[in-house]
Design a protein that fits this description.
The protein is α/β, with parallel strands linked by helices. It contains twelve helices and ten strands. It is elongated and about 70 Å long.
Length: 298
């Protein structure tokens, strides 16, 4: 099996110009700090004076005055360079979304390496959908799918994360979404694709949650997923699909066959090699290409 083997540890501008006694603020470091409430207009005056006296950058001058810290500077720079991430104090989502809360960590560098492999090997030409699969529960599949979706959106790709685990969904909890319609409801004809939820905290990330827990997940996936994906492929560049563990049924195999490709997730010192090999063979029997294996360590 050709692998993209990554050990992923989950423990894991316009300038401010002074005119008279007022400051005209554009989309600069100062404007972002003001908007975030990190400084006020009086602070901005002090910073500008020190900035001119010492020939410093605005952020460095503000830090020298003790008004902000390195985290505040990184946050502002992320907006200036269109690379959004969240401070640990912003509890919009689960802290398990390390790509959102720890974008400069070694863990997220590993995620970017996986993203790079997938961009070179799969998300080119006609390929837009990819299933994320694992033999058993607790191997990091949903965690990997969520964080990969974030790093793809940070790249500027129009990214959709679909929670197709209609048995034990996780994405709604990870992104702290309110209950409502989702994939199961769309497939059952109870809702349309307005059930896709845009996540404004990120550059271009949307989620289609699992929705109502159905009594017939396999039947719903079998009869309606292909048409649903065909519609969504016209709106997104990258579609990642979180699937149920293979031990729970054939859902993942059906989903992967509709995608044409799958990324396998295994947990170090937990997943059995034979289980991975059997999964690879089962996926290939349905016509799905195995892009590689991501080995998680958490």
């Amino acid at each position: 099996m050709q692998t993209a083997k990554i050990i992923f540890n989950s423990k894991m501008s316009n300038e401010i110009t002074k005119t008279g006694n007022t400051a005209s603020i554009g989309t600069s470091m100062g404007a972002l700090l003001l908007d975030a409430g990190k400084i006020n207009a009086s602070d901005a005056e002090r910073i500008i004076i020190l900035q001119k006296q010492e020939g410093m950058h605005f952020g460095d001058a503000a830090k020298a005055l003790g008004l902000i810290n390195d985290g505040d500077i990184q946050k502002a720079l992320s907006h200036q360079f269109d690379f959004p991430f969240l401070a640990a104090s912003e509890e919009h989502f689960s802290q398990e979304l390390v790509a959102a809360y720890q974008p400069f960590s070694a863990q997220v560098e590993a995620l970017r390496a996986v993203r790079g492999q997938l961009m070179l090997r799969w998300f080119i030409d006609v390929h837009k959908t990819l299933a994320v699969v694992s033999p058993s529960r607790g191997e990091g599949r949903s965690y990997m799918a969520a964080n990969l979706a974030i790093v793809f959106s940070q790249l500027g790709e129009r990214t959709l994360l679909i929670d197709a685990d209609l048995r034990h969904s996780r994405q709604q909890a990870l992104f702290k979404l309110q209950g409502g319609y989702g994939l199961s409801d769309v497939l059952a004809g109870r809702a349309d694709l307005t059930a896709v939820t845009r996540i404004p905290a990120f550059r271009d990330l949307s989620i289609l949650p699992a929705g109502t827990v159905p009594p017939n997940p396999v039947e719903l996936i079998s009869r309606g997923l292909k048409g649903c994906l065909q519609q969504l492929q016209t709106q997104f560049d990258v579609i990642l699909i979180d699937t149920p563990a293979v031990e729970q049924g054939i859902d993942a195999q059906i989903i992967a066959s509709n995608c044409g490709g799958a990324l396998l997730v295994a947990r170090q010192d937990n997943t059995r090699l034979n289980d991975l090999l059997h999964l690879k063979e089962a996926l290939q029997d349905t016509g799905s290409q195995c892009l590689g294996v991501v080995l998680t360590d958490f």
